[in-house]
Specification:
Blueprint: H1 4-7, H2 12-20, H3 26-44, E1 47-50, H4 52-67, E2 79-83, H5 112-119, E3 123-128, H6 162-170, E4 175-180, H7 186-192, E5 195-198, E6 220-225, H8 228-238, H9 255-258, E7 267-270, H10 281-290, H11 292-296, E8 300-303, H12 312-336, H13 341-344, H14 351-357, H15 365-386, E9 391-395, E10 415-416, E11 419-420, H16 432-436, E12 440-448, E13 451-459, H17 464-477
Amino acid sequence: MTTSSELDTLTVAETSRAVRAKHLSPVETTEAAIERIERRNPSLNAVTYKGYEDARTHARRLEARIAQGEDIGVLAGVPSLMKDLFGFKPGWPATLGGLSALSRNISDTWSMFPARVEAAGSIVVGQTNSPAFGFRGTTDNATVGPTRNPFDPTRNPGGSSGGSSAAVADGMVPLAGATDGGGSIRIPAAWSGVVGFQPSAGRLPFVARPNAFGTSCFLYEGPITRTVEDSALAMTALHGFDRRDPIALDGTVDFMGALTRGVKGKRIGYTTDYGIFPVEKQVRDVVDDAVRAFEDLGAVVEPIDFGFTVSQGELSDMWSRVTAFGVYETLASLAANGVDLRSETPSELPESMMHWVDLVPTLGVDDLIRDQRMRTSVYDRFADVFASYDYIVAPTLACMPVLNGDDGETQGPKEINGEPVDPLIGWCMTYFTNFTGNPSASVPAGLSNGLPVGMLVMGRRHDDAGVMAAIAAFEQARPWSHHYRIPATRTL
C-alpha cells in the first residue's frame, strides 16, 4: 500500500495516469486521501462531511472495472471533494453552508459536479465548508466555524468555496468542486493560491428546480485545482449539454488541446481596478509584475479604461439585491416543506445577509428595472472592450487575506485605502462575469509577505478554451508549484 505522504504532491493528471497504468489503484488513492484529511483537516476545518464508506465502495468498484479492462475515465482514481452548498449527492446531507437544521436534509439527487466527476472515474470522499447560502466572499458559519488558510491558519482562505480551495492548496485532494454566484470559485482560489476555473454560462450546466430560470445572476459550478492541466482535465469531464438547464451550451471544447496554444499575438486589456475599486498596493504590485509575463509570451498588453458611470458601491449593492432573491426563494421553499430556518435557527442566518433578504418583499417594479438596467450597462461595457481585446486581465481581489473571526461572521474589509467597501462582496472584483456570462479563471500571480495574490483572466463569451490557453501559458512562464511547500502538520 502506497502511503498518503508519497501521494501528497500528485496532481490530477499524475494520479489518473498512474491509475490507468495500474501503478496505483483507486483503493490506494482513496485511502491515502482519507488519511491526509484525517491528519490535516483538524488544523484547517475545510472538510465538513466525510463520506468515506461511500468512497471506499466506489473505489472498489472502479478497481474491479479496471481489472476487467474497462476505461473508467479521464479522472481515473482521482480523489475529490464537493462543496456543501447547492451540491447534492444521494444519501449525503445538504446543509447550504453549515445550517444545523438541515443536517437531516439528505439528498436524493445529484448535482452536476459529483455526478460528472464520478462518471469520469473520480472518487468523491466528502464535502467542504462554506458560509450560509454563500452570501459573502469568506468561508465561516455559526455551526462549523471558519476554514483556515493553509498559507497562514490565522487567516481566511476566501469564499464561498473556501473549504474546497483550502483542501486543494493543502494537498488533501488534488480536485474539489466549487459553486460561484459572485466569484466563489475565483475568490478562494486567489487567497488560497490555487487555480479556480469559472466556465461560460451554460458550459457546465447548472440544474435548479423548481425554478430553472432563477432570479439572481449567472450561477456556475467549476473545478479548483493546483495546476492548469488539472483544471483542463476536470473541465473535460465536467462540460457538456444537459437539457434540464435552459441555457446549457451544446458541443464540446478541447480543453486539453488549449494547453499548448499560447497567447502570441493576442491582445490583452489590463486594468488594476476597473476604474472604480480601491486596491491594496500589495495586490497591485504583484499583479503589475505578473501581467508582464504575457508580453514576454508575445501578447500585446495595454491599459484599458472601462468608463463605468456607476460606483463599486452601487454595483455591490445591486449584486446583493439580486442575489438575495435566490436566498429568499430558498428560505420560503424550505419553510413550505417544514423547515423554517427563520424560526428554528435564526442565529445561524447572518444578519448581514438577512438585511438584504428582508428587503426583497419591499422592492418594487422600478427597483427591479433599475437593477437590470445597471447590469445591462455593465454587460455593454465588457462587450465593447472585448470588441478590441481577446482577454481582460486584472487582480482577482482588491485586498490580501483577512484574519478569521471567532463569531462565525468573518467578513472582508470595510474599507480599502480609506474608501468604504461592502465587507460581504465589495472587495471582490469577480462578480462582473456573474452579470455577463463570460468565462474567467483566477491563477496564482505570486506571493506578498508569504500570502497568495490572484490574477483574473477573463475571455470573450463562450471562449472557454481561450481562457484555458492563456492561464496555461502564464503557468509555464511563471510556475507556482513551489508555493505549496507547506508543512504537513500545523498548530495554531
